[in-house]
Design goal:
Elements (H helix, E strand, L loop, with lengths): L22 E3 L5 E3 H17 L16 H12 L13 E3 L6 E3 L9 E2 L1 H14 L19 E3 L4 E3 L1 H7 L11 E2 L22 E3 L4 E3 L1 H6 L7 E3 H91 L1 H8 L5 H23 L17 H8 L3 E2 L7 E2 L5 E2 L3 E6 L9 E8 L10 E5 L3 E4 L7 E10 L2 E2 L6 E4 L21 E3 L5 E4 L3 H8 L6 E3 L1 E4 L8 E8 L5 E8 L3 H6 L2 E3 L26 E6 L2 E3 L14 E3 L4 E6 L4 E6 L4 E7 L6 E8 L2 E5 L5 H9 L1
Parallel strand pairs: 12-20
Antiparallel strand pairs: 1-2, 1-5, 3-4, 6-7, 6-8, 9-10, 9-11, 13-15, 14-15, 15-18, 16-17, 16-19, 19-20, 19-21, 22-23, 23-36, 24-28, 25-35, 26-32, 26-36, 27-29, 27-35, 29-30, 30-31, 32-33, 33-34
């Protein structure tokens, strides 16, 4: 049972904020005091007459009309309501509970039912609140006596003497119904407010209110669906009882859950305390054992050293040499001293020489007793609640990449996001460091962009999930390497030497594609001898003057021939004017003969430093330092290639950008500005690697 004092807010009128007094039921099923309804309608009429002046509601300090209610009153006034209209009009009432304008109908306040049930509950609450205050008799002469009963037919309270006087035996009043002392008098029969002489005996299911048979026959409820009052009473009481029982059942279950949570938390605390107590015991045992070992070693060493001291002191004392020498030193006569001291000095020197081979009997340092707790500290740092239900995340190496920044992406095997937050840890691999220091960052999603990594370094990454205080085990560590130099950003140049008949740039100038169309076929049709065609060159729009830089790109797998590298600014014109590029290394227009003597030195005669790619292969240039076997100079084409230009050292390297492994490196003349250079022939395409940004993380989180 719910305590009577716990329902107080259900017994407060929304208008006057006090306990209900003669509450009425509005059509919206909310309750309001009878007096409050009259005062609000009075304020409404004054607002209509005075144009909505603020003084309209000041005559009644009991009622509090909100600003929103006054706005609705003004809106109703402006809607065109006319006074003295000959047509029946309805009364609009601003409900203070639901903030809606309620139509009270033609009868207005007289058409509202009085909520006797709520009135009885309020009276019961008042009696519980003022149990010590008695209800006095209404008919006693002063001073009035305390009433003992109340008559429901007379709506009055009586003491025993007054009740007998006003209800004599043998009269009609003697048959009146009486109850204990109360101030709440309700009629025995609920009458219809529209037909005052008719009792309500039906319930309108549409309007959700009691009605009489006249309301059903010719009133406003003629076409509405109605049921008998007894049926409505039984149905509504069953529904209300079931709903209350349902609420009480769930409240009881919640109370049980609260108690169970308290018990389980105490049990978990106890188990956690026991676990830590075990750790404390282990540490105390290890501490005691270590201190005992140090103390034992100290005692053994002191004993050995003390024995050695006593041995040497005894040797000297037994011979009396030291005592005799100290007495000789007291001699003040130089001649006598020299005469005696010479022989004594020889003996002292012999004793000193015997001490030169002296070795301590024990070590004084305790370096062997240093306790290394670095691994244990890391283990204790990772100590947390582990749950078998929380999945172990795995770093997705295909979606993760390192370029200008590092994008680390992970996922759960079950494809479910069971963790509330993830912790990503990473550290730089350094063989010289004995202990590993992990850097930690918390992530709400399943990817993270890192920008604080060093160039030309390898990093190890791992991730774990957290749900509250419970965490998953660490994922498998993934090692990734950063570029050998800072990333150099540029776009393809669409002006300098760009041949738009053969090459096609995308609007962002990050991809270029060669068109193997009719111009190439027409050029080949004129050739009868030899085998050569034209390479279409394109360069970057930004040059490099100094420093070390890296850029990456992708070559489509279907590409027939692509050359990549660098070109100095003073050779760009020569590059674009040298339209004939030999495909066969055995063909040279100016050589005068057809031999292979120019094979090795072919690349050195070109205006720029380029390597050849094509047919899913990477060709290492034929140089004196290269392997002589042609097959060993052909490597599989990586999915992503990179170029590292070191202007200060005058070297350029070609990398597998996926693993950051150097495939080929050579010297290059960096006397001028250096530009990235690309050459395409036939069907081929090159795409510049896009920089890692925060949008990449958002994109991966969306996926």
């Amino acid at each position: 049972k719910v305590a009577i004092k716990g329902i107080e807010r259900e017994l407060i009128c929304p208008a006057c904020k006090e306990l209900f007094t003669h509450p009425l039921i509005l059509p919206c099923q909310h309750n309001i005091c009878h007096k409050c309804v009259k005062e609000i309608l009075f304020a409404f009429e004054d607002s209509f007459a005075d144009g909505g002046s603020e003084s309209s509601n000041q005559s009644s300090p009991r009622i509090r009309i909100s600003a929103s209610s006054m706005d609705r009153i003004d809106r109703i006034n402006r809607s065109g309501r006319k006074r003295n209209s000959l047509t029946p009009r309805s009364t609009l009432f601003p409900c203070p509970s639901c903030q809606r304008d309620i139509d009270l109908g033609e009868r207005g306040i007289n058409g509202l039912f009085r909520n006797f049930t709520l009135e009885t509950i309020v009276e019961r609450y008042r009696q519980a609140a003022r149990a010590a205050i008695a209800i006095m008799c209404d008919f006693c002469k002063p001073p009035p006596q305390e009433s003992t009963k109340s008559c429901m037919d007379c709506s009055a309270s009586y003491c025993n003497e007054c009740f007998k006087i006003h209800h004599p035996w043998g009269t009609v009043k003697a048959q009146h119904e009486y109850v204990g002392p109360t101030t709440n008098f309700r009629p025995k029969i609920l009458m219809c407010p529209e037909h005052e002489m008719e009792r309500v005996n039906m319930y309108c299911e549409i309007c959700r209110r009691p009605v009489c048979h006249l309301c059903k026959l010719g009133g406003g409820h003629a076409n509405h669906r109605v049921t008998t009052m007894s049926t409505a009473y039984k149905t509504l009481k069953e529904k209300l009882s079931k709903d209350i029982e349902y609420l009480i059942t769930h409240i009881t279950q919640l109370d049980l859950l609260l108690k169970e949570t308290e018990c389980n938390s105490e049990r978990a605390k106890q188990e956690a305390s026991q676990s830590f107590e075990k750790l404390y015991c282990v540490l105390e045992e290890k501490k005691s054992a270590a201190l005992r070992a140090i103390e034992t070693s100290k005692n053994i060493r002191l004993e050995k050293l003390q024995t050695q001291v006593e041995e040497y002191q005894g040797l000297l004392e037994n011979n009396g040499l030291v005592g005799y020498a100290q007495e000789v030193l007291k001699e003040t006569d130089p001649s006598c001293f020299v005469q005696t001291a010479k022989q004594l000095h020889v003996r002292i020197q012999k004793a000193t020489e015997s001490l030169k081979s002296f070795r301590p009997a024990a070590e004084t340092t305790f370096e062997d007793f240093v306790v290394d707790t670095a691994k244990q500290e890391d283990t204790l740092g990772d100590l947390s609640f582990h749950s078998n239900g929380l999945e172990i995340p795995e770093i997705n190496e295909e979606q993760s990449r390192i370029y200008n920044k590092a994008l680390i992406s992970w996922e759960c095997p079950g494809k479910t996001d069971s963790a509330d937050i993830y912790v990503l840890e990473y550290h730089k691999l350094n063989k010289e460091e004995e202990s590993v220091t992990w850097q930690k960052t918390e992530v709400c999603g399943k990817s993270k962009v890192l920008s604080d990594l060093d160039d030309d370094s390898s990093y190890s990454f791992r991730v774990r999930g957290y749900k509250g205080s419970i965490c998953s085990p660490w994922s498998r560590e993934v090692i990734m390497r950063t570029p050998p130099a800072p990333v150099f950003s540029f776009l393809f140049d669409d002006k300098c030497g760009y041949n738009n008949d053969h090459l096609l740039l995308n609007p962002r100038r990050t991809s270029v594609e060669s068109r193997a169309g009719f111009p190439l076929l027409l050029g080949s049709e004129r050739l009868q001898v030899g085998c050569f065609t034209t390479l279409d060159y394109i360069i970057g729009d930004t040059g490099i003057a100094k420093g070390k830089h890296f850029w990456a790109f992708n070559v489509e797998a279907y590409s027939y021939l692509v050359k990549v590298g660098v070109v100095p600014s003073n050779k760009i014109q020569k590059l674009f004017h040298n339209t004939s590029d030999v495909i066969s290394p055995r063909y040279e227009q100016d050589s005068g003969h057809d031999s292979g003597s120019e094979d090795v030195f072919f690349d050195s005669s070109q205006p720029c430093t380029l390597v050849t790619l094509g047919m899913k292969k990477f060709f290492i240039p034929a140089t004196p330092a290269a392997p002589k076997d042609p097959a060993s100079r052909i490597l599989p084409l990586p999915s992503c290639l990179g170029i590292c230009l070191d202007c200060d050292r005058g070297r350029v390297g070609f990398y597998d950008a996926g693993r950051m492994k150097c495939l080929y490196e050579c010297e290059v003349d960096c006397s001028g500005l250096m530009y990235p250079a690309f050459a395409l022939m036939g069907g081929a395409a090159v795409h510049l690697e896009e920089a890692v940004t925060a949008k990449d993380r958002e994109h991966h989180d969306d996926i």
